[in-house]
Q: What sequence folds into this?
């Protein structure tokens, strides 16, 4: 057996280590995403990558069997999930996951300081982080377009749920840092499981499979870095709390997306979150992403 290169994401860290890691992350994130385009909630490097995908589209050889079923159920599930084919369930479930992300960042973008008004490095890192999340929604949109779904709308949640998401980033850091970290971890877990599902669902569509994986990789590489970055906001007690939050948090969130139970092994996802340590992340993704120093062996 090869020796593990990384330690658990829940490994302890000192305040000094976390300070140094924020400095290191700041250097990484600027190179990784490029200049912030504040008005467009976008980043130069990310925009160039998306433009490449858009200018070189790949389409299904055999169009989706039932796009109407997608459009009928993607915002809210109207049919019985068990009556839907697995492809439709995967696409509507993926949209719902991405929609939650979109709603969360939309609320946060409006209440966090813009780059000009950032008071410290953590604020600046968070601003770039949010812009990256907007890029993820664009990439998800491109994934859906690659599957022939050109008419997807990003629909807000109900007004009270939107309000709730808007309040969340206004809470003090000590309250939001732990759930914010667990949310990022849940994203990485979900995307790794989704990646495997792509293999199964697009086995007969090799060009599309390759493109969808490339689009999802763009997202996952960011999310791996976000996991480390958000972990870096958390001290000794908080990280113990975070580990305990994985199970209830994943359970609550995935219960809200009816498709998930039909597509994924939620118990395995929870387990993967609890034992996450970067060792299962392919080397080429690690090379483009970021890992906190205290998670290296
Ligand atoms: Fe994201
Ligand atoms: Fe993220």
A:
């Amino acid at each position: 057996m090869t020796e593990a290169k990384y330690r658990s994401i829940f490994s302890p860290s000192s305040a000094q280590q976390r300070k140094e890691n924020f400095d290191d992350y700041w250097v990484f994130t600027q190179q990784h995403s490029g200049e912030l385009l504040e008005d467009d909630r976008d980043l130069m490097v990310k925009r160039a990558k998306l433009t490449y995908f858009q200018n070189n589209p790949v389409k299904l050889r055999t169009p989706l069997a039932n796009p109407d079923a997608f459009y009928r159920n993607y915002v809210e599930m109207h049919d019985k999930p068990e009556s839907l084919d697995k492809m439709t369930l995967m696409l509507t479930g993926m949209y719902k996951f991405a929609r939650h992300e979109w709603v969360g960042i939309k609320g946060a973008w409006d209440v966090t300081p813009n780059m000009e008004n950032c008071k410290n490095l953590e604020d600046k890192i968070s601003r770039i982080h949010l812009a990256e999340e907007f890029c993820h929604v664009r990439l998800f949109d491109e994934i859906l377009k690659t599957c022939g779904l050109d008419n997807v709308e990003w629909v807000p949640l109900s007004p009270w749920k939107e309000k709730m998401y808007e309040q969340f980033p206004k809470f003090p850091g000590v309250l939001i840092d732990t759930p914010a970290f667990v949310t990022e971890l849940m994203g990485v877990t979900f995307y790794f499981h989704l990646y495997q599902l792509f293999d199964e669902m697009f086995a007969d569509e090799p060009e599309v499979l390759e493109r969808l994986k490339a689009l999802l990789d763009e997202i996952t590489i960011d999310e791996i870095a976000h996991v480390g970055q958000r972990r870096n906001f958390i001290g000794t007690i908080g990280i113990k709390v975070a580990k305990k939050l994985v199970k209830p948090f994943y359970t609550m969130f995935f219960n809200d997306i009816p498709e998930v139970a039909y597509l994924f092994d939620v118990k395995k996802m929870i387990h993967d979150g609890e034992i996450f340590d970067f060792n299962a992340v392919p080397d080429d993704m690690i090379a483009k992403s970021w890992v906190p120093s205290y998670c290296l062996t």
The chain has a mean pLDDT of 95. The pocket of fe (ii) ion (ligand 2) is lined by residues 133, 184, 187, 223, 226 (CB under 6 Å). The longest helix spans residues 173-201.
